[in-house]
Amino acid sequence: MLEGFPDEELLESTHTFPCEYRFKVIGSVDDSFVGRVLAAVLAELEEGVEPSFSTKTTAGGRHVSVTIEPEMHSAAHVLAVYGRLRRLEGLVMLM
Questions:
Q1: Which of 12, 58, 83, 93 is 20 to 30 Å from 2 by CA-CA measure?
Q2: DSSP state at residue 46
Q3: To the nearest whole number, what is the mean pLDDT of the chain?
Q4: Would residue 61 be called left, alpha or beta, if left means φ above 0 and alpha means ψ between -120 and 50 degrees?
C-alpha cells in the first residue's frame, strides 16, 4: 500500500473499473515538469493511448498543476500510476 493514498479495497468500492480516473499533480514550474508527469502516466498505459490533460500555472508563477484523466483498468493500475508520480522530481503535491 502507498502511504497517504487510498488502498485497493477503497478504490474498488468507489469506482467501477475500467473508468477514467483523475490525477492532479502539482509541482515546481520548470521546462520539463509537465512532460515528466505525462511520461510517468503514459508508462503505465497501453502504447498509443493519449489521455486528456490540462495545466494551470499559479498566479505567482512558481507552481504548475497538471490534471490528467487516463482510463484505468483496476485499482492496482491506479496505485501503479501513483507510485510513479510520487517519485517525480519537483513534485509538491499529488492528489
A1: 58
A2: P
A3: 91
A4: left
Q: Which residues, including other chains, have CB under 8 Å from residue 38's CB and lie 6 or more apart? A: 53, 66, 68
User: Cα 78 to the chain's mean position, in Å?
Assistant: 9
4: left (phi over 0), alpha (psi -120 to 50) or beta: left
Q: What is the pTM of this model?
A: 0.89
Q: Is 4's pLDDT higher than 80? A: no
What domains are defined for the chain?
A: 8-94 (3.30.70.260)
Handedness of CA 76, 90, 47, 17 (dihedral sign): positive
Integer CA distances (angstroms), 42 to 10, 17, 49, 50, 62, in order:
24, 18, 8, 8, 25
